[in-house]
Amino acid sequence: MAIDSGATAWILAATALVMLMTPGVGFFYGGLVRKKNFISMILLSFVAFALVSIQWVLIGYTLAFGPDVSGFIGNLNFLGLNGVGMDPGSYSPIIPSMLYMVFQLVFATVTMAIVTSGMAERVKFSSYIIFALLWTTIVYDPLAHWVWGGGWAAQFGSLDFAGGTVVHISSGFAALAVAFVIGKRAGFGQYLMEPNNIPMTILGAAMLWFGWFGFNAGSAIAANGLAVSAFVVTNTAAATAALAWLFASWIRGKPSSLGFVSGAVAGLVAITPAAGYVTPMAAIVIGAVAGVLCYSMMLFRLKKGWDESLDCWSIHGMGGLWGALATGIFAAAAVNGFPGLLEGNFHQFIANATGAFAALIYSFVVTYILATVIDKTIGLRVTEEEEYVGLDISQHGEHI
Asked: Which domains are present in the chain?
């Protein structure tokens, strides 16, 4: 097929929108940590963008989207972007293959940025660089191949329109695994560790909501009605979940801005796998459940005393899991030709549940092993003195 100039222009814009999400994650997380770790937290996201950009060009894209090897990984045909040029490809019949590559690149970068939640205020920067490169290569790339690159999950029929499984389940459960390995922050549970800049977190959430239109609507890989539908359900779910979290938390206290924006992100996460398959009415249900569920999972984490305190697990991990299951339930044939459980297709629910739980287990187990190996060899965590001083000064020699 010939290249479609309208689709090409839209995916270029969508790629730029998704790129904005990586610093958005940095600002969202940076506002939630203590002042002495503010710069460090933002930098982790920006560095993730640079590191994964190079990794993706050299080897990541071919591992994720190269021709299938045993349903698990792509081969090395596209190593160093060999053969990836300006002509359309099998994944991008109306846009240049190079554009599809860079659109997928920004998905990989934001996923690694999300994982930094589990390392907040205590990771050694040099070890983080090694972790980020290895995690993207051995966790993210295979998962992307399973679902989007023609791997076993795609062959089984699992649907993930824009990354509920590949991006959010993987990052959410990876963050939890890292938090378990690296241990709690000094003083966690003994005294308050309040956010240093709530307006910065709200700004980060606004950047995420804005960028998410490229994330989900761009995943139509065309400027068409499916992109419009994905755009509408994305906004609908985000708004519903924001209000659901706000009102659920209001019952226990005051309606907080952090609760509102956390709910919005939860809704965006949950609609991501379903964006190209469900109606706006289903999006309201998906968003409402996401807001209440993710809020409940945050309370569960607090009760358990887990120091994954930027709540990647409760929002991205559990929100992504709900979204994957909801896709199997609410997928409507009228939207994109895929009926779900409510339309009598039980296999779709089974396929999505299988893909979601496989990704959950793979991400958590492999991340736990990887973090443990790094911790036991070069050390994943800063010293007690460095943690006390703060990572801005101890790791980067800077302060605000």
From this structure: 5-396 (1.10.3430.10)
**Phi and psi torsions of 393, nearest 5°:** -85, -50
Q: What CA–CA distance (Å, rounded) separates 70 from 397?
A: 47
- Write out the E strands in the chain: 68-69, 73-74
Contact 166, 321 (CB under 8 A): no
Confirm whether pTM is higher than 0.85. yes
Residue 73 phi/psi, 5-degree rounding, is -150, 160
The 10s digit of each residue's pLDDT in 360-372 is: 999 999 999 999 9
Q: pLDDT of 93-111, one tens digit each?
A: 999 999 999 999 999 999 9
| Cα distance between residue 111 and residue 238, in whole Å | 19
Give CA–CA dist 220/14, Å, rounded. Answer: 10
Q: How many angstroms separate the Cα of 200 from the Cα of each of 31, 49, 219, 264, 291?
A: 5, 20, 28, 15, 21
d(CA 356, CA 213): 23
- Mean pLDDT (the chain) is 97
Q: What is 17-72 written as a DSSP string?
A: HHHHHHHHHHHHHHHHS-GGGHHHHHHHHHHHHHHHHHHIIIIIHHHHHSSEETTT
DSSP string, 240-280: HHHHHHHHHHHTTS---HHHHHHHHHHHHHHHTTTTTT--H
Contact 40, 392 (CB under 8 A): yes
CA–CA separation, 11 and 23 (whole Å): 20
